[in-house]
């Protein structure tokens, strides 16, 4: 009756990071993250996508951002959002200390510095993504 299922990309209001301790059987909510309005698409879900732990850093992403947390505190250290970050699915550090970000909405991979300077970009379909977009 009047209820309409929301699409997955418009369902979640914040990303959550949980700490799971299998030995103790406990779960602790450590982070509740809301994308800043200037980096969020209208009516877009806020979820954490793929990432990696390297050393004392957790590299993760939302649909429009790359984020770096210090662990174990889970303090937010870095935040990068660029106009070409569209449906970001994964982030990891590069060998040069930059970020490698997959932007599936534009079928591309971007290497960027933490201050948002694009170092390199690759179209995953064999041509520059800017041919299509």
Span between termini: 40 Å
**Average pLDDT over all residues:** 87
Strand-and-helix sequence, N→C?
EEEEEEEEEE
The main sheet orders its strands as 3-4-5-6
Task: Provide the low-confidence segments as ranges.
Answer: none
Overall geometry comes to globular
Instruction: Assign a percent range to the helix content.
Output: under 10%
What would you report as the Rg, rounded to the nearest angstrom?
16 Å
How would you explain this protein's 3D organization?
- The protein is mostly beta strands and 133 residues long.
- Helices cover 0% and strands 42% of the residues.
- A four-stranded antiparallel sheet has the order 3-4-5-6, with no helix packed on it. It has a four-stranded antiparallel sheet with strand order 7-8-9-10, with no helix packed on it. A two-stranded antiparallel sheet has the order 1-2.
